[in-house]
């Protein structure tokens, strides 16, 4: 996307140029991003919500068995498999209600949320640590503090830096689940998961976490401490790596009039560009197949069965489709007949729900070029769960800039809700996106795709934030599983709700799925 905007809004000074150079952001890129605040982003044109038989696969028992066997064969071959876990987000939003309680004028719990938290606190995986911290800081254990009405002392010990500091730590380092041998963090649960579906023939499990710079040392220390225990228990060898969002993916903030937002010292304000920035981290991963799942979507061992089965199902769907695409690409190189190419076109429509532009007749060289473009690109299989009212994006069939229609994961911000027809499509969607992806990152010749070239830059969005009490407009990059993967071959597969167990608030840890 190239946007030219010659206005005073993009005037930058020597200090700005030095700041851009330090981040690795060109002036041209900065100007393009500032122009986005004025131009905005177009809504996507929808063909319709995806559903079973219309963009979403629901394999039969026999097909499921075939896909699981395909994955088992694949992972026992000479392929590198990586589990990629976005883990940089702070857990502060998990404790929003507790922060509010700590600042409230009343001292005893009043809201249902507050009462639920304290009524179940002894079930929390972090209870033993919190109890010890309370004894250290207050000379009393949790029951004694609660008996005294010192509810806020308990909360402040949980959240504050003198206590457990949970209010400032990332989710990946918090204790989520209790076991007889001790409590586990999400980082540990992801390591265990990796041994169950991503272990290669050599017994190696490659796990990559994207983390924030300030927490990297804590992640590395926990991984170094815990990995040997889980490696021994699951007859595996871990290769654990970490990366951070690149400064070059930060985006500028703007004032209400779309001029650059400047901090008190006059410098430009840049903000992390959202999870879409992680396409750069993913692009650095050398792997044949990559599993992607959010850090907080984990369950204890007793409930991992469905997670493991359906992760392997998604991977089986992916590698079977990839093998078929590779065979067709080799046939195109050798010289395919018109009839064979028409069969390939039919395959794209039937298996991948990828449709050529309306009214366009594809034959001969034009069809050959189209097939090479659509078959030779990154591929992903995405789990989709039945819609039960959870917020978030969903699966759609959408029009692309080249006039084709293909499966896309869209957020509500990408859809024109002022258009009654489009709003109805969004609201009537049968499934939503739990962020459960398996990706193939190499082409049929074994070369790595350069993932940034498959991003649709027109799928970012503008959000409204504040800094130092001042309102600002923030530029969010195309989301990792939204516009950042827009030009991938995408297939949606129905998976059960039991595979989706995110922890959005601390009280979610009291749900049956996390006990």
Termini distance?
Answer: 48 Å
| Estimated structural class | alpha/beta
How would you sum up the major sheet? 10 strands, mixed
Radius of gyration: 25 Å
| Tally of separate helices | 15
Strand content: 15-25%
Report the helical percentage.
25-40%
Average pLDDT? 93
Shape: globular
Low-confidence stretches: 1-9
- Give the total of beta strands: 19
Overview of this structure, please?
The structure is a single chain. This protein has 515 residues and is an alpha/beta fold. Helix content is 36%, strand content 18%. The chain has 15 helices and 19 strands. It has helices spanning 14-23, 27-39, 61-75, 96-103, 112-119, 127-138, 142-147, 151-159, 186-197, 216-233, 278-283, 304-334, 338-352, 364-375, 420-427; strands spanning 46-49, 51-52, 55-57, 81-86, 177-179, 182-184, 204-210, 237-243, 251-254, 270-271, 289-293, 379-386, 394-399, 405-410, 431-432, 436-440, 461-467, 470-476, 489-494. The strands form four sheets. Strands 2, 3, 4, 7, 8, 11, 12, 15, 16 and 19 form a ten-stranded mixed β-sheet that branches. Helix 10 links the parallel strand 7 and strand 8 (237-243). The chain starts with 13 loop residues before the first helix and ends in a 21-residue tail after the last strand. 42% of the residues are buried.
């Amino acid at each position: 996307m190239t946007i030219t905007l010659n206005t005073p809004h993009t005037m930058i000074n020597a200090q700005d140029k030095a700041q851009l150079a330090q981040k690795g952001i060109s002036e041209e890129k900065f100007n393009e991003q500032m122009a986005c605040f004025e131009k905005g982003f177009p809504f996507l044109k929808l063909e319709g919500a995806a559903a079973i038989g219309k963009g979403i696969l629901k394999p039969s028992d026999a097909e499921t068995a075939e896909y699981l066997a395909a994955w088992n064969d694949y992972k026992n071959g000479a392929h590198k498999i990586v589990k990629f876990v976005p883990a940089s987000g702070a857990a502060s939003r998990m404790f929003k209600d507790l922060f509010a309680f700590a600042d409230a004028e009343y001292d005893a719990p009043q809201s249902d949320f507050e009462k639920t938290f304290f009524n179940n606190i002894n079930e929390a995986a972090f209870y033993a640590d919190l109890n010890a911290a309370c004894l250290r800081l207050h000379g009393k254990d949790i029951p004694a503090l609660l008996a005294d009405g010192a509810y806020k002392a308990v909360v402040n010990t949980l959240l504050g830096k003198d206590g457990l500091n949970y209010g400032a730590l990332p989710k990946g380092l918090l204790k989520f689940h209790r076991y007889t041998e001790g409590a586990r963090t999400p980082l540990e649960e992801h390591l265990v998961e990796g041994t169950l579906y991503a272990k290669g023939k050599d017994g190696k499990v490659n796990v990559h976490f994207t983390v924030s710079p300030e927490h990297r040392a804590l992640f590395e220390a926990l991984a170094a401490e815990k990995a040997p225990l889980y490696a021994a228990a699951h007859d595996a060898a871990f290769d654990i790596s970490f990366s951070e969002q690149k400064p070059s993916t930060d985006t500028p903030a703007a004032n209400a009039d779309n001029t650059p937002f400047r901090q008190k010292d006059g410098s430009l304000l840049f903000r992390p560009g959202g999870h879409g920035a992680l396409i750069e981290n993913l692009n650095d991963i050398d792997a044949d197949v990559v599993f992607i799942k959010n850090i907080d979507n984990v369950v204890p061992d007793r409930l991992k069965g469905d997670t493991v089965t359906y992760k392997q199902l998604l991977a089986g769907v992916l590698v079977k489709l990839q093998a078929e695409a590779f065979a067709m690409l080799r046939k195109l190189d050798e010289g395919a007949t018109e009839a064979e190419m028409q069969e390939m076109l039919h395959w794209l429509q039937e298996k991948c729900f990828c449709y050529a532009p309306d009214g366009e007749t594809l034959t001969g060289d034009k069809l050959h070029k189209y097939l090479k473009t659509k078959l030779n690109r990154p591929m992903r299989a995405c789990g989709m769960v039945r819609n039960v009212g959870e917020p978030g994006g969903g699966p759609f069939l959408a029009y692309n800039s080249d006039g084709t229609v293909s499966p896309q994961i869209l957020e509500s911000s990408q859809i024109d809700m002022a258009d009654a027809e489009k709003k109805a499509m969004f609201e009537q969607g049968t499934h939503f996106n739990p962020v459960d992806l398996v990706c193939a990152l190499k082409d049929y010749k074994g070369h790595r795709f350069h993932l940034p070239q498959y991003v649709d830059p027109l799928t970012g969005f503008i959000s409204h934030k504040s800094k130092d009490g001042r309102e600002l407009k923030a530029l969010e990059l195309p989301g990792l599983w939204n516009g950042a993967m827009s030009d991938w071959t995408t297939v949606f597969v129905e998976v059960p709700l039991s595979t989706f167990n995110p922890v959005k608030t601390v009280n979610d840890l009291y749900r049956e799925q996390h006990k």
